[in-house]
Design a protein that fits this description.
324 residues; TIM Barrel; eight-stranded parallel sheet; three-stranded antiparallel sheet; 12 helices; 37% helix; binds NADP nicotinamide-adenine-dinucleotide phosphate
Length: 324
Amino acid sequence: MEYVTLNTGVKIPRIGLGNSNRGNKIPQVGLGTWKAQPNQVGEAVRFALEEAGYRHLDCAPIYFNEKEIGEVLGQIFREGKIKREEVFITSKLWNNAHAAKDVEPALGKTLDDLQIDYLDLYLVHWGVAIKGNIGEEHLDATGTLISAPVSIQETWEAMEALVAKGLVKAVGVSNFTAPMLLDLLSYAEIAPVVNQIELHPYNAQTRLVEFCHNKNIAVIAYSPLGRPRSVINSGSRLPVLIQDPVVMNIAKAHGKSEAQILLRWAVQRNTIVIPKSMNPENMKSNLLIFDFELTGQEMQALTNLDRKLRYVNPYDWWKIPYFD
Ligand SMILES: NC(=O)c1ccc[n+]([C@@H]2O[C@H](COP(=O)([O-])OP(=O)(O)OC[C@H]3O[C@@H](n4cnc5c(N)ncnc54)[C@H](OP(=O)(O)O)[C@@H]3O)[C@@H](O)[C@H]2O)c1
């Protein structure tokens, strides 16, 4: 096993992806960057890399902050404090660039913004194609997203071409269901190495995780903490996962935070986690999950919290029953 060793001596496992040896191994904990505000994200990424010891960043052009992240990456790599090849960097193809002719230009913009010349992993963000500029979404009179007639096969072939050109080390998908994966695997010359999906005890998706692992597709858990701040701040009625009594009791038993328990549950079921934080203390503590273990009973108690609850549900924005 390879590790990222923090200056505290803590070791974060690095996991191999797919069958090929082309790529860098992915550290099992990475830093999420969605809703990381452009005026904050640069310093947060600098802290994450230079102080906390993160070596894995999860980015996307739809987060509208790749430019600010790139300014910091450019500086850090130029100064030579950390080498480009030590950091695993993921980004994602947005829905407006699924047409074959648009895929490489979209990647080019991400690489320019991030000030790097290759990605470790490029994901198809959603299995939905649309027209227009990034950030633009057109709805019909019923409030349903107007999609573009581009097949996933067309997009995937363009993704594969990026690997051949050396612009990305590996390709994968995000928000793919089992039937979508089966279809993709039927024609893919390069199989997806990752499926990035919403995973936490309220949306455990145990069967999809098993299915992906059986197909040699690693699973990255997004929103692994259940997006606590958005849920609390929006005053929504969604339950707050980190305040669940089962999570709180297990945290007490181990002398760990609720967030650490949720992240430990994720890594113990062999998924990769990308908690987002802009707070230095949270960033550091989210890495400290390899010095304890949950018992089989605790793992099961957390999995039993499953209620198929999604904090990220495209039906709310697109009226597409994507996961129904
Ligand atoms: N592929 C996709 O479609 C998709 C969808 C959603 C997310 N993602 C990726 O996954 C990443 C993570 O998901 P997410 O951002 O939705 O949600 P999340 O990681 O579950 O939650 C992030 C929130 O948790 C707070 N937090 C972090 N560490 C904490 C701790 N130790 N204790 C208490 N609160 C803590 C953060 O606040 P502070 O900043 O104040 O710490 C932030 O508000 C995203 O940032 C993005 O990179 C991908």
